[in-house]
Design brief:
four-stranded antiparallel sheet, alpha+beta, five-stranded antiparallel sheet
């Protein structure tokens, strides 16, 4: 039936602008919901992958920066120990403390339950990591000639005080302010050499020892007037030492033929300002251990890298007296005792000609049960990367045969 209203026909059918039906609306919402779930799922997965990639990028940057700083320091190892042609002793540029633990002594692996939830975080012990000391002389403190209060030779075994003249341009107060109790000083003899290119201190006619200061220097009022007075810990017989008196281990394990306890007014006393690289296991992040590579110099420590799970230092050495060359990660008498008969440098650090440093780092351990990756290094829930450098310190390699 059709009716006329003001001349226009009206029918009972629905017009075109009456909107969606309920069924159409429900279908549209269902399609939108499926698309939204798919999009957010993909976004969530890619967000996880992005976090992992950012972690890997941060790890690689950390490795690169730490090794760059190590290279800068090690290449200058032994700086300041060459005092002129009359002191030919090959410098001790680095000292290395190697550890060779078993896996059980090194770290405790993380544990997970059947739902992939971490029950215990991985724990690394200090036995996992080596220690590297870069030996350098304080450039702001000129060396002095040691003598007794009467001008005689110093005996570091029976004596505990030395006197040294102020360098030109220094007063008692300015020179004394460069020292503090606990500083390590190096005694170097200036005996005329018999073989300039030798690596052996004794063969070169030059011997050495180390000691630590026990007090702040003062200005002497007795002979020689105006000289600095330095109090130090006495050494053992012949200049031998303990690690307490020689924390850098420059002389504590050195051959006795390279040591002496007698130094005169033509010899030298140098203030050392070493750089030490160690790994600290005391830091944690969210309850999980965060081993940190730490650089320490002049009492100031700075963290170079987080999440370090490996720090190994090896050395290559050349012994002119025996015409032998070798390399290993061991400061003992042999590279790999007892199966390997290749002689090591046996803590005779004057033989070292190059240094290899290896750092192994990891991304931050994951506590997310959905992260099922386990690395082949220690089976932890994180990525692992390692990198190495080989450095030839310029002060240790010049004049090689």
């Amino acid at each position: 039936m059709t009716h006329m209203i003001e001349g226009r026909p009206i029918s009972g059918r629905r017009t075109q602008n009456s909107g969606f039906s309920l069924i159409e609306l429900m279908v549209a919402m269902a399609v939108f919901l499926v698309i939204s779930i798919t999009s957010f799922t993909l976004f969530s997965r890619h967000q996880t992958l992005l976090g992992q990639e950012q972690g890997m990028a941060g790890l690689n940057i950390g490795l690169r920066n730490a090794l760059s700083q190590l290279q800068i320091d090690v290449v200058n190892a032994g700086n300041g120990q060459i005092l002129g042609p009359n002191v030919p002793a090959w410098p001790v540029g680095v000292t290395i403390v190697n550890t060779n633990p078993t896996a059980a002594q090194c770290y405790t692996a993380a544990t997970f339950n059947s739902n992939n939830v971490m029950l215990s975080s991985p724990v690394y012990a200090s036995a996992c990591f080596d220690t590297l000391n870069v030996v350098m002389v304080d450039a702001s403190t000129p060396p002095v000639h040691p003598m007794t209060s009467t001008g005689g030779c110093i005996n570091t075994t029976s004596g505990s005080t030395l006197y040294g003249g102020f360098p030109s341009g220094y007063s008692s107060s300015t020179y004394a302010s460069n020292f503090k109790s606990g500083d390590q000083v190096l005694f170097v003899s200036a005996t005329t050499p018999t073989k300039y290119t030798t690596t052996k201190l004794s063969a070169a006619g030059s011997s050495t020892t180390c000691t630590t200061l026990t007090g702040i220097p003062s200005c002497s009022t007795s002979y020689p007037s105006g000289f600095a007075s330095l109090a130090f810990n006495s050494t053992g017989a012949g200049g031998t030492n303990t690690s307490t008196n020689d924390p850098l281990l420059m002389t504590s394990n050195a051959p006795s033929t390279e040591l002496t306890n007698s130094f005169c007014s033509t010899d030298w006393v140098l203030r050392l300002q070493p750089i030490t690289y160690t790994v600290s296991t005391s830091n944690t992040i969210n309850g999980i251990e965060d081993p940190q590579l730490v650089r320490t110099q002049a009492g100031t420590s700075s963290v170079l890298m987080d999440q370090v799970v490996g720090f190994k230092v090896g050395a290559a050495w050349w012994d002119n007296d025996t015409d032998t060359y070798s390399y290993c990660y061991n400061t003992g008498a042999y590279c790999d005792p007892p199966t390997n008969s290749i002689p090591g440098y046996n803590s005779d650090f004057t033989l070292i000609r190059s240094v290899r440093v290896t750092i192994i780092g990891r991304t931050t351990p994951s506590t997310d049960p959905s992260y099922t990756y386990r690395n082949p290094f220690d089976s932890g829930a994180y990525q692992i990367r390692g990198s190495s450098i080989i450095v030839d310190p310029r002060n240790l390699t010049m004049g090689n045969d």
